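We emphasize that the prediction below concerns an isolated chain of 646 residues; any contacts that depend on oligomerization or on bound cofactors are therefore not represented. The input was used exactly as deposited, without trimming of termini.
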Amino acid sequence: MRHVGLPILVFSLSLSAVADPYSEKALSVIQDSKSTFNLLNPATNGCGSEGSTAPHTASTRSTPDGIDPCTDLFDAACGANSKRNSSDAPTKLFNELIKPIRDARNQTAKAMGYADFDTGLKAKLTEAGIELVEAPNMEAWNTLKKESNPVDPYKAVDGNLYRLPVECEKEAAAIPYPSSTDLPNAQAFAAKLKSFNAKYIASEIQFYAKDIPNFMQSGIGMQCTILKMSPKNYPAKTNAAAVQQCANYAEIRHEAAELYRQEDSPGYAEKAIAFVKAHLPHALNYASPREQFSAPTAPLPKQSDLDLLNEKNTSAFSHMATTCSDLKNSETNAATKVAQDFLKQVNVGKPTVEKMISTVYSPEKREAVTKLFNGSKETIQSLLKDLVKDEGKRKEITDGYTALPLNWMEKPADSKYLTRKDGVQALDIDKEPETLTTMSMVDPMTVFAEPSLSFFTIPNAMYNPKTTMGNVVVGEGVTIMPALFANVETNPNAALSVIAHEAGHTLGPLLSLLNGYDLRANYTDLLSCFKSSESIKMRTEQQDETFADYVSAEVLAREIAKLPKASQSESVVTAMESFCLLEAMTTNAHSGGGKEDPHPDPYLRISGIFGGNPSLRKVMGCTGDSPNYKSCGLKCWAPDAAGGAQ
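Result of the prediction step, given as a token string:
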């Protein structure tokens, strides 16, 4: 067993969010910062009141769209009225992130003897008896290849991908219900229905046999669920065989488990087909009008042979659509298994692994992200002068920040590969480690074993405190997933906002306790301000994420203040791009707002935490506090009027 799971405590920007390109910015934003700010109670530090309600005066600055960021930072950065409207940002970002994955997969597919990955997958499908239509729906094809956009999970996939279901639907449409009611016509119609079902059910059996666990779940299991939930619609009397099959489900499942043990052995395919034939779900009979009503007070007249046959034909005719649907589902599931297996083969190939790592973690991007990360740490360390009065404790925390690592994925050593039968070197993901004392958040053995390679497409960043389980240690560190720094050279401020958020977690209320230097008492006023309904009405479980956003805002203010004065306001707006992306992803997925979410709503994060931050407002040239949110933060820091922090 290669992959070991640990209960690792991770604090992330979000479940999925971070960067997208906007405008070209110089990386010279990172310099040594000498400014400080104070989170201690203002009454004892002379730094102005947290949660001030000073009057707001609109700034004379605005975005190119004419939107004043001092009035509404969200609208200026990513709202519907802005040219930066972020609704399609997740799709644009994903389309950029998937390109290197496709290129890398093609490298291994070529080493396996195929022209490219798509050609190889089509060959594997053909070997499995799965035929595509002449012009496959590209969205469905990308979904099969694990290249569809995960940030738009509810996007409908129109059209069929496989030939047989299309033929099934056409043939079903060509069999009209007979208008004549005489017995010979009814018998002829019954024969047509029987032939139709026999033809396509035979293919359905072949496909189900390729994935027995799925057959148990999507075939028998689903039908038993329908019977259980709708007993009036599917009476037990007319569905006796199906009811009995459900009663025997445990025995059938045990038989399936024993069959699974023989997978890949000689003769398995024939045994799987025989198993599916023996247990293929029976067509369910919907309640007839006679069965849907209460029992009559007088006996119903006996039905004629013609009446009985017409009733059966009506039911069988309605089942034709179900036959085509079941065929499509079984073939889709079989194709998915073929694709999953091929993806695993390709993903762990050395050409894929090395191409991805060298492309995604290019020297230029590593240098840019490292510079931002180190700059964030230095700025946060400077804040500790006022945050922690105990000199010894402050030195301990400062030294810890100096050692805080940024986790990078490195190319695996040659010893991690084996040579497969096809001649391709591939990661030996099934090899047991000789020892297990440390774990990495960016382990290639885990990342490349996942079919969709989602590590490279989900925009996120994470801070994890040191975690120990027995002899296994996961060291403290910050992980920046590749989607974040894909465009770090074009918008470093957006990346900086996230990097500072993750680095800021070390000092958070819960994290400082876990890290051995409880700082909660220092944040009483600040967190009380955020809890106010005049601010973002922060819930207790959101305090660490809120605090990390607050630190990010303070770091952004100090770093952007080093830029030319004329560009500072616009730089704050573009720095919100990562959070605008999160807002768009949350909206597109129709999620967010759950009481269990440790993150405040993205809208509140941008408008309330960043837009209401006193330091950022000074950098933007705002006069007074936000007109919509109580200003939570300290008033003592100010940027240099000429550009450059005081």
